[in-house]
Amino acid sequence: MNNSSPFKVEKDGHIAWLILNRPEKRNTMNLEFFNGLTRQFREFDEDPEVRVVIIRAEGKSFTAGMDLGSIGGLLQGDGADFREDLRKKIIELQDAMNAVEKCRKPVIAAVHSHCIGGGVDLLSACDIRMATRDAVFSIRETRIAIIADLGTLQRLPHIIGHGWFRELALTGRDFTAEEALKMGFITRLCEDREALYEAAKKLANDIASCSPLTVQGVKDVMLYSRDRGVYPGLEYVAQKNAALLPSEDLMEAFKAFMEKRPPVFKGK
Questions:
Q1: What is the pLDDT of residue 71?
Q2: Considering the entire predicted model, what is its pTM?
């Protein structure tokens, strides 16, 4: 990956670390960020060795949100053709966040310090979020005359419920890691970055030790059921299990149980 990339990727066994790597810009999100995010998660999705992805960041902030200097030019124009081009560009940026959610591999966000605006969009597309005690979050778009349009308004209420969500979205106020834990936005609160990354790695290894076919199936069914409801979700999981249950991984699970040893799953 070249030096101008907003990301670094490190692999450790079945874990891929996606590292936000514009520390001098507080990891703000420019157009290259969005293009790279889409490409990177498609690669993770297709890589059979990757079972879990962890997102972390270099520098003082996880992300300060959109790079307004880079993105601001998209907002300058007039006329119906300009507005239609802007609509298409917003959808293109949305697709980058969608790629995170649609990735079959579970995605863990490990957040330190500031996670602002587009950072909340990114976290809302992840499966699990954890943070250091100094982390601060904000749906900052509300305070700069923008309707958050990359997924926060659609995903966050499913994570924290409408009570907290509406307060945060309508005020755009900062909320702390303690508040984020209380409302269920994050599930782990760590004292510092070293502890955060250790906790993220342990959780990722716990997930990676399970059958990848099953883990990916669980994520698929969760998203399907969220978007379509209980009864369609039940029908879908019945079909899913009918396809997946006769697997080598299931036989390995039975064999390991009988032999009183940890199973070794191969995703077959």
A1: 77
A2: 0.94
